[in-house]
Structures are given as C-alpha cells and as structure tokens.
User: Which sequence fits this backbone?
C-alpha cells in the first residue's frame, strides 16, 4: 500500500477518522478526504522521491510543509483536520532504518 511515496495510515487512526466522520452533524457538501499519517515510510524525503519517480521537478504549493517535515505526505490533510478534527496520532517513521 501507499503507492510510490509510501503513504500509510495506522488502522487505529483510520478507525478513529471513520468514527469522527460519522459524528459530523452535516458536511456542507460531499467531501473526499485523504487520511494519512503525518509522515511517509519512504527512505528518502517526499519531494526528492516524487521528483525521482516523475523524472522532473515539481511545483510545491506549500513548501514550508516540507521544510518543517521533509517526510510529510503528498496529500493535503487540512480537510481531515478542519472538517473532522482528525490528525493521525500514530507515526511509524521511527521504524524506518
């Protein structure tokens, strides 16, 4: 799982996000929401890996995200945070050697 950038979400976090989605009184519209841990499990930083995979430079919408966390996921997790109150609690990055 996780595709070429090795995204993942711990099952405990996925279950919590599902519960939070059920508890939202009413979303303003249909909303697709990405869930991910706050870091990937790839051995190299996200943007380095993406550019190597695509074989070209990429434009970055929020470069400060990757300055603060080079292994941050590619996806915008703000909707999960803003609409559901969800931020992943379990990070397995420490297992990568």
Assistant:
């Amino acid at each position: 799982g996780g595709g070429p950038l090795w995204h993942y979400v711990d099952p405990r976090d996925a279950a919590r996000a599902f519960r939070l989605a059920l508890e939202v009184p009413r979303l303003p519209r249909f909303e697709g929401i990405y869930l991910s841990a706050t870091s990937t499990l790839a051995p190299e930083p996200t943007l380095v890996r993406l550019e190597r995979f695509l074989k070209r430079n990429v434009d970055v919408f929020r470069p400060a995200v990757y300055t603060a966390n080079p292994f941050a996921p590619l996806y915008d997790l703000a909707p999960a945070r803003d609409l559901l109150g969800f931020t992943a609690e379990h990070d397995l990055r420490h297992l990568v050697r």
